[in-house]
Amino acid sequence: MNPKNPVRKNPSREVCEQIIRRILFTELSEHGKNSHFKQASDFMGYFESLYPASDGLTKQVQRAVKALQMPKDENGYFIPNKTALQLKQEQELSRLFQQSSSSLQDLSGCEPVFLQLDAAFMDHAIYLFEQCDTFRNSFQVLVKCSGGLLFYTRKKEQLLLLLENLLK
């Protein structure tokens, strides 16, 4: 008996989409980013290893890539884990950070200090604290919250002393 290899039918567009997502997410997990896939033809080697090469298979893979509507990075590679809107928002944030003096600050060593203050005076008090040279280096964060102002500081004793002198 000579069993014939059954001819495998082309996958549906949805199956192609699932396979493409799996390929790209594997790429992300192994390499941290996609640096191999820019267009539908880049996936064809994988699909042709599973299905007979044909124009139908190529078109199905092209349709799947188009249907996924994946944005591309600055080098033209697909970004599978973001939508075009997310990418646009992140790019806008990045531009904003680059134009300002942005940096990350570790607050794990900070302690909270709460200053009870009437709501009507909070905005002006925040403005004054941020402008006052006396307080310039005494806190990392100043937040308006219910009932007053919340400071996060690495110099708790200094901040408490400054605030207590103002409260007298």
Description:
The protein has 168 residues and is mostly helical. The chain is built from six helices and three strands; from the N terminus they run ααααβαββα. The protein has helices at 13-31, 44-50, 55-68, 84-99, 119-131, 156-167, and strands at 111-116, 141-145, 148-153. A three-stranded antiparallel sheet has the order 1-3-2, with helices on one face. Helix 1 crosses helix 3 (55-68). The longest helix has 19 residues, at 13-31. The chain is rod-shaped.
* Secondary-structure element string: HHHHEHEEH
Q: How would you state the average pLDDT, rounded?
A: 92
Gross geometry: rod-shaped
Q: Report how far apart the termini are.
A: 102 Å
The largest sheet, given as strand count, sense and whether it forms a barrel, is: 3 strands, antiparallel
Summarize the structure.
The chain is mainly alpha-helical and 168 residues long. Helices cover 48% and strands 10% of the residues.
Could you give the topology of this structure?
Layout: H1 13-31, H2 44-50, H3 55-68, H4 84-99, E1 111-116, H5 119-131, E2 141-145, E3 148-153, H6 156-167
Antiparallel strand pairs: 1-3, 2-3
Helix pairs in contact: 1-3
Which descriptors apply to this entry?
rod-shaped, mainly alpha, 6 helices, 168 residues, single chain
